User: Which sequence fits this backbone?
């Protein structure tokens, strides 16, 4: 088959979980003799509104890297989900290359342009979901006050989330524990009040986004999700593709081979691997570590990762750590080193306060029989079973996190009892599943079968 994989980002400049997923998939597809081209967004702040394309070969993969400057758009918010220039480029590209299948990796940065282009040309389209972008402009369903949206909310709540990115709104709202945002939503239920404070156009924009993306999803032939939770959560928001299936993500075990044994240490080693961002709850982990009673057993905390350049969060974390010698900021690591990094830990902590989907780092940890302490939120409980291969605590609960970490310190054999892992499909198995799904969408394969 000829497959066009369209993704928001792609290595080597971007290496988060969704990017690594795309990289694994296309490598295996090509190994199985399918013809694959990758289109990715390299920059949204470079050039003009019209995308420019740099085509190159990266590790024997043909990659088209697009750059454009969305800041020049007449309406930046609308273009974040419906970019006509990107849509036109995609339609021209698909007409020229004539793929059998378009596989879209996430909606972030791509918007509905890709699927609309494929639909206009009658090309079957598959979408891999990674987050809540179709339901939430913030992607995470996490409010600026630190609370998650536990149920569908009126458009005014999304407007408030956008406004509270500014300190003058965010800080008083945090001080009032979300009360200011609640008052804003209540006030704007009146059309007259909404117009008076200038909120009506923004509320309308959110309504337009929701209706448009709902329509986009309904036209996609097949969506796949790596967690059951994500499927259920999107359904709550009325977002239902024609067909949606649970397809658990695989793991590149090449970086993990030989690392199921953990080097012994007199000090109990607690680790965090991932982005240093507020929705990941790293601040909670630092505070929980500081509260531990270390009188009977020494321990240390190692934080692997970095904060996005636009956030001062890492500086705040370092201040919060207060130069404690037991806390180390180890910086980011190449994905090829993940086995070595996990081998130097006794437990991995994932203290997220947002609805995690299927965190790659948890799958990697469990594949190396590294116990996981994690928030009981999103798709995490589908992977981490309490008292079996890890420990769970309520999201955002400092006492709950501290209690579970203290258990590991006070019960020396607990970590070993939790080294039970989790069954993870191989990349070959995952791609075989995807290929069979591709084939089910192609008339030639369907009639042949």
Assistant:
């Amino acid at each position: 088959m000829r497959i066009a994989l369209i993704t928001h980002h792609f290595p080597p400049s971007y290496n988060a979980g969704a990017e690594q997923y795309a990289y694994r998939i296309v490598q295996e597809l090509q190994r199985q003799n399918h013809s694959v081209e990758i289109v990715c967004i390299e920059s949204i702040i470079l050039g003009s509104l019209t995308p420019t394309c740099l085509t190159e070969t990266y590790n024997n993969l043909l990659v088209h890297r697009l750059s454009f400057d969305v800041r020049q758009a007449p309406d930046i918010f609308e273009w974040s989900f419906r970019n006509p220039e990107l849509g036109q480029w995609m339609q021209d590209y698909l007409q020229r290359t004539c793929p059998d299948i378009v596989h879209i990796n996430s909606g972030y940065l791509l918007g509905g342009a890709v699927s609309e282009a494929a639909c206009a040309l009658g090309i079957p389209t598959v979408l891999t979901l990674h987050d809540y972008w179709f339901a939430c402009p913030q992607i995470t369903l996490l409010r600026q006050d630190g609370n998650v949206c536990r149920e569908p909310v009126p458009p005014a709540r999304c407007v408030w989330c956008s406004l509270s990115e500014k300190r003058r709104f965010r800080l008083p709202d945090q001080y009032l524990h979300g009360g200011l945002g609640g008052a804003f939503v209540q006030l704007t239920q009146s059309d007259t009040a909404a117009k008076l404070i200038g909120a009506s156009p923004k509320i309308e924009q959110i309504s337009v986004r929701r209706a448009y993306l709902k329509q986009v999803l309904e036209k996609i032939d097949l969506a796949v999700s790596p967690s059951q939770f994500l499927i259920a959560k999107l359904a709550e928001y009325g977002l239902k593709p024609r067909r949606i299936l649970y397809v658990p993500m695989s793991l590149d075990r090449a970086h993990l081979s030989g690392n199921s044994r953990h080097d012994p240490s007199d000090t109990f080693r607690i680790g965090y691997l991932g982005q240093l961002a507020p929705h990941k709850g790293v601040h909670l982990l630092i505070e929980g570590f500081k509260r531990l009673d270390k009188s009977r057993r020494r321990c240390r905390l190692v934080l692997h990762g970095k904060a996005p350049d636009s956030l001062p969060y890492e500086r705040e974390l370092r201040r919060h750590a207060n130069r404690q010698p037991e806390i180390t900021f180890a910086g980011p690591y190449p994905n090829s080193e993940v086995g070595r990094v996990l081998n130097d830990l006794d437990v991995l902590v994932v203290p997220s306060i947002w609805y995690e989907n299927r965190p790659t780092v948890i799958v990697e940890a469990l594949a190396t029989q590294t116990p996981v302490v994690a928030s009981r939120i999103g798709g995490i409980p589908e992977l981490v079973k309490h008292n079996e291969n890890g420990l769970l605590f309520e999201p955002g609960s400092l006492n709950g996190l501290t209690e579970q970490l203290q258990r590991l310190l006070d019960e020396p054999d607990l970590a070993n009892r939790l080294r039970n892992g989790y069954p993870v499909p191989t990349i070959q198995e995952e791609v075989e599943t995807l290929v069979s799904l591709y084939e089910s969408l192609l008339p030639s394969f369907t009639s042949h079968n």
About this structure: The chain is about 40% helix and 15% strand. The mean pLDDT is 91.
